[in-house]
Design a protein that fits this description.
- The chain is about 35% helix and about 25% strand.
- With about 525 residues, the protein is α+β, with helices and mostly antiparallel strands.
- β3 and β4 form a beta hairpin.
- α4 crosses α10, α7 packs antiparallel against α8 and α9 runs antiparallel to α10.
- The structure holds 1-O-pyrophosphono-5-O-phosphono-alpha-D-ribofuranose.
- The site of 1-O-pyrophosphono-5-O-phosphono-alpha-D-ribofuranose (PRP) has 12 residues, from β21 and α18.
Length: about 525
């Protein structure tokens, strides 16, 4: 159905088109109130994208919450054995990871509960693809929790979490380290490293996945399921364009089997996310399977402006200014990406390479990941220390081998750790410091500083500092010593998740030129 009322905004128009699409596929509108009991969400907190939920005390004294999610309520309201096709258009309330502010998010979603496994997958993914095509140039990426679980079989405990992070962030170096720490043979380490970067058009990527996982147990069935799904979809929708990307993964306590995400060119984050969640149904004591997806409509409003802009196919790179910047730029220059004037003393912030294919933004090192996460820069280079501190949701594609340093706890030589009182730690890395002391179950009082951190223990402002050490000169010249090492750091090439979908060729070309010299 075509809705062309001139007063409708883009997302309002797409909402109407989606309603029409969902209803013609015989899905019924599900309406819910704005509140649920706070406990309900707490019991299922790892299903949610964040623990931060807005709560208040209801008239009867119960702690209530403004809903951060709709699927949980639909599952709760479904009878055991019931077959249900529902869709919803609701506001959910979540805290943004980057801004720390709560936001009202307009979400539209669809759930197929209790349908035959294969048929429901074909139906739901087909509707997801049609929904995406209403928005513009998109990419629909499939993944499979069964495949990911099979890849991670050799890992347990902390190493499992590390290997999972390596897949999620496409971090081949972390996968290599983790696999080596798990004592895996070299040949398997090489394959896992390549698997951590695996992503691309459906057929070639599935073929490569088969090759790279030859002989591994548990991988064939999931790959076959993906293949069957793709064949069934191409039969009913010949123009469907699917990709495979194993960095898409969800919590195994809730999701199993097929999972997928949809991206829209010009939008930095996925605008559609879904998957099979039989495990969630089981947790609610319901035996029927279920699959569904949600679309984030607010993201579409912003694209109205972006879509009107002329197409810009240049690769945008955020480079850190200062100490690390010079060595990082030297690596780019060696790789043939030189750019006149970038090293000259000036206040200019945007530069272009000679061929006009690459644009550089010069930003503060601590801001690089924001530019990349929000998609303003497609890729960037920043320190691992800053990635650990910000927890930025970006892909970590390569270690640039420069800017090497250690994140340490340092203090006066006679300092001994004693949790009789909270440790006073001065730092520019509050999250890293908090995480370090939480692991030790020790109380800490963080004193946030922005520079000359070493002064804090010397003047009695703090007992210790949590900071980076590169050459060790600053500590030495101030008679301080390292008491513990938290992590090692170096410059990392990071990429925006959506740019990876739409500019993968350009990013891979740059990655190969860099790898030749790294
Ligand atoms: C960093 C860090 C240490 C110093 C360590 O400070 O905070 O102070 O480098 O380097 P070194 O081991 O080679 O001596 P930065 O130079 O960024 O300046 P700042 O003190 O203003 O933060």
């Amino acid at each position: 159905m075509d809705f062309t009322l001139p007063t409708l905004s883009r997302s309002e128009m797409i909402t109407l088109q989606l309603r029409s699409l969902f209803e013609s596929a015989e899905y019924q509108l599900f309406r819910m109130g704005s509140f649920e009991a706070y406990d309900f969400y707490m019991q299922n907190r790892s299903f949610l994208s964040s623990d931060d939920i807005i709560s208040f005390t209801g008239a009867d004294g119960r702690l209530m919450a403004l809903k951060p999610d709709v699927t949980l309520s639909i599952v709760k309201n479904t009878k055991p054995g019931e077959i249900r096709r529902v869709y919803y258009n609701e506001s959910v309330f979540r805290r943004g990871r980057d801004t720390g502010e709560y936001r009202e998010i307009n979400q539209m979603g669809l759930e197929y509960i209790g349908g035959a496994a294969k048929a429901s997958e074909v139906e739901v993914v087909s509707i997801a693809a049609k929904s995406l095509s209403l928005a513009g140039e998109t990419s629909l990426d499939l993944s499979h929790m069964g495949f990911i679980e099979a890849l991670l079989t050799p890992f347990s405990g902390e190493l499992y979490n590390e290997a999972l992070a390596a897949l999620r962030n496409k971090n081949p170096q972390l996968m290599r380290q983790t696999a080596a720490a798990a004592g895996l043979p070299d040949e398997l380490i090489d394959r896992l490293e390549r698997l951590s970067l695996l992503s691309g058009p459906f057929n070639t990527t599935i073929c490569l996945a088969r090759e790279l996982t030859a002989g591994m147990s548990g991988v064939l069935r999931p790959l076959e399921e993906l293949d069957e799904l793709s064949r069934a979809l191409s039969d009913s929708q010949p123009d469907i364009d699917l990709r495979v990307d194993f960095s898409i993964l969800n919590d195994v306590d809730y999701y199993n089997g097929l999972i997928f995400q949809g991206f829209l060119k010009g939008v930095a984050h996925p605008i559609l996310a879904g998957g099979r969640y039989d495990n969630l149904m089981t947790r609610f004591g319901k035996k029927q399977g279920a699959i569904g997806f949600a679309i984030y409509l607010d993201e579409l409003e912003r694209t109205e402006i972006l879509i009107k802009k002329p197409k810009d196919n240049r690769l945008s790179i955020a480079l850190p200014k200062g100490r690390m910047g010079e060595s990082v730029y030297a690596v780019f220059e060696k790789a043939g990406l030189e750019c006149d004037g970038i090293l000259e003393e000036s206040r200019k912030l945007i530069f272009e390479d000679k061929a006009g294919k690459v644009r550089y933004f010069l930003v503060k090192p601590s801001d690089v990941s924001s530019y990349v996460e929000h998609g303003v820069a497609d890729i960037g280079v920043t320190g691992k220390d800053l990635l650990l501190e910000t927890g930025a949701d970006v892909l970590e594609l390569a270690d640039m081998g420069v800017g090497k340093c250690r994140i340490v706890v340092a203090g006066k030589p006679d300092y001994t750790e004693n949790f009789t009182f909270p440790v006073r730690a001065a730092t520019k890395y509050p999250n890293i410091a908090r995480g370090y002391y939480a692991k030790k179950s020790g109380s800490v009082e963080i004193i946030m500083l922005h520079g000359s951190i070493e002064l804090a223990p010397l003047t009695g402002l703090a007992d210790v500092i949590v900071d980076i050490v590169e050459s060790g000169t600053t500590l030495k010249e101030n008679n301080l010593v390292v008491h513990d090492e938290i992590a090692v750091s170096s410059a990392r090439l990071i990429a925006n998740r959506a740019s990876w979908r739409f500019k993968q060729q350009e990013i891979n070309a740059l990655l190969s030129s860099l790898k030749e010299i790294l």
